[in-house]
Amino acid sequence: MEEIMLPVVTSPAEMAAQAERWRKAGETIALVPTMGCLHEGHASLIRRARQKAGKVVVSIFVNPIQFGPNEDYASYPRDLKGDTALAAAEGADLIFAPEASALYGPDFQTTISVAKLTAGLCGASRPGHFNGVTTVVALLFHLVKPHLAVFGAKDYQQAAVIRRMNTDLFFGIEIDVAPIVREPSGLALSSRNSYLSPQERAEATVLFQSLRLAEGLVQAGERNAGKITAAMRGLIDGVASSSIDYIAIVDPDSLAPVEEIDREVQVLLAVRIGTTRLIDNGRIGR
Ligand code: PAF
To answer: Which of 34, 78, 140, 177 to mutate to test the pocket of ligand 1 (most atoms within 8 A of CB)?
Structure first.
């Protein structure tokens, strides 16, 4: 197959200048922010961006400041060549792949922080994580100057936090959140799935099975959130390699815990399979 070439910009100033030229020429710009190691989930985001904007920028940046000291920053999978090929095949116009030192100078001191929405769930188990996310996404918004930014729904809390930041800081960017892409087994696609052994990969489907269980219980008339999360916990605990970080049933917008399911709610969970931390979520109570 013939390889399609795609410009890879590493300089923030060059990125901003290109975005400015596009804007002056009346182009609409879509940004798909990623940490690379692109898979079909990312491809679906790029396709969505492609349909909605004239120019599509895919940022590839493993953002050091959103990883905790004992997390997988060093081992996070990196594949710029493969990513460039995938982004090109999906019709992206440009890859923005800055070095960490180019985005965060030696005296970098600024943090963007969203308060309430980051207090629980992944924010509680990964202190500082969302400050790292909002800070880098704000930087990307400034440099790429997108009209539209596309995020994946697997990171449900992240999407809520970014929407809040976008509103609070008057970025005026359309935030599009695309549905989770799953393997036929139900496992949500994630770059971190590459850490799983074949056996763990099979066991990791328990996250999706637990969401199906929650949905089934609600459809059968169960309204008590505690009983539903207990049933999910029972199912997941049956997998020896699993350890639950959290299971929560929350309001889809505020992410506040819900006790009685009298409307649509979001179920979110984070579970370790072996040493790999996976997240998933789904809407129930429709
Ligand atoms: O979801 C991700 O891949 C990252 O958190 C993001 C939004 C690219 C920021 O580094």
So the answer is: 34
